[in-house]
């Protein structure tokens, strides 16, 4: 009877242990070439599991994402996770400044956590002009079930991945740029990889709505160059989230979505049951290109009206729309505390960095784009690897650019562009755009507060116009022609982070840079000859810890010791028990395993929380050593959770 009771307790502990770590979501991608013909002419595209666009990554806040990528192309490949912050870890960021590419015929497994994030994002291939060929898909992060969202659960939700489209292959476009040319206007606009040619044709709707129900739409501009205006015939959109932040819920007839930006909206099926057109059209271009799709009501028998809603005209309209976007201060995002509990407007600015884009020809006459006069090129060795191995000086030079560039930049230097930033500095970055085209920038590893945006040149007195209360926290910022945009952020995420133009041509030809954020706290200390070094620390981590010389000869011949830190309470609060899978050797090899702490007794006595009992059981390692955590299958389309 006693043995049976012990077995039951062990089974309960095994079940509890499975949920101790944040869940894992697994994906396997086979990346290959394929042919698409959205406008009739065939084009070589990049497919994931034979899909264009690629499969959705579907997860919840704090999930661990594991993506095994098999590269079946004839060229190197990397994927970047647009808007994902990769806390404390830029190794999985997927840009050539942080990672070696996945070579043809090989595979690589990405593993990253969507720590403290919710919302609508996307992924894409980051090398060369791969993004113009496809390999793009949505990445949605649901909120944890215990954290409420500021609107009722919708009937269903759907993606709208919109973007401009070039009929030429990515290799042909690359050759144009390598020869000194420019890409020019795209050939069209796609919505979820398609374009409806005739509204009264036999068109398959993107989805079908039930009258009276509300639907959530996740909209991202995944294109290569152009801002797009998104609108739905007869259906206003209520904005509820953008790039990980819940917003004040204003209604919009249309939304300007700049390259790299994402919005989440709600629409209600409260119109006549029929088909309706969805339109994405280019903005700020010599002539307008439109992409169209269809949504429908259940049982609809009438086609969409041929009278389509018109897009706005000037970029001043877009600027004014930006000013209506506000952070929802009372809503919780990925954490239980309200968004407005972070008072970013009360923090002192420690550094101001001005980013000015420019364009010129290099000495060979080829077109180059630059940031503060430096046009970035990727070295053979990824920047972060060079830094980590202590050979940065052989690969790149820090701080080629100034925080305050000259008013007029006439010369461009072609080199790796890496800016040093101080860990935990609260920084103001001002983007100035002296050109006649709209710019769009993304900063990996961070979200920032987009506090100001105006026409003209920036000066310190412009801070008086900043929104220091409820600016939306996001990861991509637009900068209008002959205008400036200002962001505020804390450099609290150590790593090597890519700050890049979202315009494929500009980025490929140098309008990007990396920000190196290093933590000043070290775990290794040097001691110079006939000198001394002192450290301070708290022995608050129970265990047996090795203090050693980092000189291999000295360490091997005895210059090391162990520090035993024991908890006087012998409590699971302070030190976990031996994992069942731990190898044992020496004189203890054949000894019985010491009994674990009496978890249930401690729980009953109020000496241990449920969370600590889950994390501290003796069998923890038995699960994670073999499985890496609980496997959670991706949710199927139509399954609903809060987001």
UniProtKB/TrEMBL annotation:
GO molecular-function terms, A-Z: copper ion binding; oxidoreductase activity
UniProt entry keywords in alphabetical sequence: Glycoprotein, Signal
Keyword Glycoprotein carried by entry: yes
Domain spans labelled Plastocyanin-like: 31-143, 158-298, 381-520
InterPro entries according to UniProt: Cu-oxidase-like_N, Cu-oxidase_2nd, Cu-oxidase_C, Cu-oxidase_fam, Cupredoxin
Signal peptide from the UniProt entry: 1-20
Family under the similarity heading: Belongs to the multicopper oxidase family.
Full protein name: L-ascorbate oxidase
